[in-house]
From TrEMBL, chain A:
Pfam families the UniProt entry points to: Molybdopterin (PF00384), Molydop_binding (PF01568)
CDD domains from the UniProt entry: MopB_Nitrate-R-NapA-like
Gene Ontology MF terms: 4 iron, 4 sulfur cluster binding; metal ion binding; molybdopterin cofactor binding; oxidoreductase activity
Record protein name field: Nitrate reductase
Region called Disordered, residue ranges: 1-23, 779-820
Domain (4Fe-4S Mo/W bis-MGD-type): residue spans on this chain: 41-97
Feature: compositional bias, Low complexity: 786-798
Keywords: 4Fe-4S, Iron, Iron-sulfur, Metal-binding
Keyword set includes 4Fe-4S: yes
TrEMBL record, chain B:
UniProt name for this protein: Uncharacterized protein
Lineage: Bacteria, Bacillati, Actinomycetota, Actinomycetes, Jiangellales
Entry superkingdom: Bacteria
Natural source organism: Jiangella asiatica
Amino acid sequence: MRRTDRIAEPWGSRTPYGPGEPWPVRVDSYLADGVTADDVQHWAQSASILHSNGDALDIAVVDGRIVGVRGRAIDRTNHGRLGPKDLYGWQANNSPDRLTRPLIRRDGELVETDWDTAMDAVASRTRELLCELGPSSIGFYTTGQLFLEEYYTLGLIAHAGIGTNHVDGNTRLCTATAATALKQSFASDGQPGSYTDIDHADVVCLYGHNMAETQTVLWTRILDRLAGPNPPRIVCVDPRRTPVADHATVHLAPRPGTNVMLMNALLHELLDHDWIDHEYVDAHAVGLAELRKMLQGHTVEHAAEVCDIPADDLREAARLIGTSQQLVSTVLQGFYQSHQATAASVQVNNIHILRGMLGRPGCGILQMNGQPTAQNTRECGADGDLPAFRNWSNDAHIEELARVWNVDPMDIPHYTAPTHAMQIMRYVEDGSIRLLYVTATNPAVSMPELARMREILSQDRLFLVVQDIFLSETAQLADVVLPAATWGEKTGTFTNVDRTVHLSEKAVDPPGDARADLDILIDYARRLDLRDKDGAPLVKWSTPEEAFEGWKDCSRGRPCDYTGITYDKLRGGSGIQWPCNDEHPDGAERIYVDGEFWAQPGYCESYGCDLVTGSPVEPTEYRALNPAGKAIIKAAEYLPLHEPPSEKFPYQLITGRTLYHFHTRTKTARAPQLQGAAPEVWVEASTGDATREGWSEGDILQVTTPRGEVTARLRIGGIRDGVLFLPFHYGYWDVSSGHEPDGHGRAANELTFTDWDPASKQPIFKTAAAAAVRVAESGGVPAPAPTTTASRPVTSAVPPTRGDPSAMALEDAATAGGAR
Amino acid sequence: MNLAQTLRSLHANKVGAAIEELHRSENDLAAALLSVSDRHKADHEIFYVARDIARWSQEHVSRLATVGRDYDLDLDPEPEDEATLLARMKQKSAEIVGRRHEPALLLLADLRHIQRTAAGVSVDWEVLAQTAQAMKDRELLTTAQDCHPRTLRQMRWANSKIKETAAQTMVTG
């Protein structure tokens, strides 16, 4: 048993292991001051909801109150480990400013009301609009943080009950490209990789993925491999010197917006050296000839110039990839939120197809998720997809779904892909959507170009419903605010990026009158009197477990088949990976074994799209291209940036996360240890730029783009020259101005521009042209940025990030009994 | 004189006219795309994608000027600059704006125009590709094979945007 300050040591102690060995167990726990494990009256099984890794944990309860957490040793995901957000984040549940009563706008002010009044207002406005303007005047914008049962119910209500096509999640901002990239290459969503691939890999490539900060426990797994015998070599693509870059054999720091060029050069090298598994490609893939043609002239020398990285580094990265025996690749926001998001991410898939590195131990792709339950938003049809990876342009799939829901196929809009979030906001802007129902997300801070977003959300003609646990910036603009229960206060399941399904049990009652999201949604459906084609209630369940059973029916025979999972089966043991059915009664660690894909024209989720224009591939065209349902090698041309730097705006602005916060800090800022580690916004610049501009650590900079300005202290760190970084977590709910800037901007999205990848519709947060000037000197105060992460200062004069005594957590590496 | 040269000397006038016509129509398509882009700046995807794919037509203009030399044509390899193009489009735009009050309807009308213009360009490429084969003109054939797929993508883009926006515009807008 070891006491560790997990603010100072986010990844904790090393438990080294070698290739093919099981990852040792280390049980991490943290209990409120003065509480010991013996005091805990009840441990409720759950998993983390403050990042996407899916760390399994138990929630400690004393006298009906959450008092801490402990990692689950038995779980395949984390083998007992927890990250800093898992350890400290639960304290937000007990925060005194939780929403406990519904609010309704009266004479311009939000005032407390009762559930009946609030829900009646929402239901009657919905009914009015259905009569006046029809179902397309109603939109739903959800999240990556509800539970599977809630998304499935929401999808059913929206698609089949109300009949609107406007349903999406904030997953559009984080994981849309992951899904789209998988659909291009394998014609279906679903991760080809498994976390256990890290136990075997000899090369791990992280593309725009600062795993050390976004999935700390998965990074711990890599650190433990690196500390053991025969460690894997790491290839890191990131414009910042992240903790991943520190451990990389090759670190490529490209100019933002040039990922496709970089990937094409790597592929060019693979082809040039014939580092190709021809037998695999011949048997299991289509499209190699088109790729060869596209890559003509994409030499490392050319890419070195465009991306501004050394040609030899590119060659070395290609050699590591090309000669690896067991290759794992992970991809995240550095690709997903950048120019040509899908095109770049698809090239990572292409590497694995060309090298035959799929469906075997140590050979996996993890197109990562950014949120804990984003996978379920995608699976359940709450994010611009139809439930259970059904294909909106395949009529047979719509008929099947209509049978499951007992509705007429015409009642499910499928004349085009479900509307993506950015377009939903556009329809709100042009007045054709008049009611927007937002669940558990905060677009007033997280969407690009906030001045525009605030205008959109504050319109009088818009009826804005916000269902959340705190009065977020978005909730402050709402007409009705519905107080929700959160993790630990309701039961449900959710699934992480490697398809592991976890059960999260209710540990305590929600505060005040707050209710579970599922209960609120069902109440809404009942008030609208939504019915199936035989006149029975459309939503046929009232508990999470019943909803889960309903979902299982819907998932039957589809790639994400849950039919073999029950709540009971999830209780007590490890999470279970889908597909879990008669064929795989204990779940499936790997998919795409032996080059078998879900890409058959009649079965696949998607026919793909044009990577430049986003136009869907027509069904007939897909059948001709890929009749046998093989993997698809899809080539992509490099396009110049949409907003290149200019004389007036000479820098490239990228935004991103820090390890200690999640999203707009609604929870993490209410956990004192996390908030203390990263209390305020900062801006990062390189030593080269700082020297040239005459800036010093802690100087106050004003960063501007044509959209707005943000004022922040400067951290001089390991970012590439010409690039500025702003963390996107900081909004206005904890400053006096409430939902908008008071004088100076604090939210990174004041600066970002409204543009998205035409294929995945994911907004571009990483290539805005920006200017920066110093408005005040530091006065000896350094930037309030963590020193433990990618924001590490170049100077040693900044005091290191440490927790106070309340941050001491326990690590127990001696616990008997292991994860499977 | 080999067969290809013989064929070229016999039919240079007609083929030259076809290249010239396509050179003009690709310039038109670029203009139409840039115009749609500018007029629908609030529809961000339209704004950016239309500009990205207008570049294809501009590249085609330059490639047509190159192959045109074999047919004694002196076509401008530089695509018409944006100002000239937009000036040319003004009249057409005004016409459409005058008839369509609703901006969303205007977008539909503009996309319809793009699809029809691209369809015309596509037919012209078909004709040129067939001709190139009959003439055994490899350079012309390669040009058609490189460029024509992009025209189809431009056309499909317009069509898919129409499908995406039509229902909202017609029923709810």
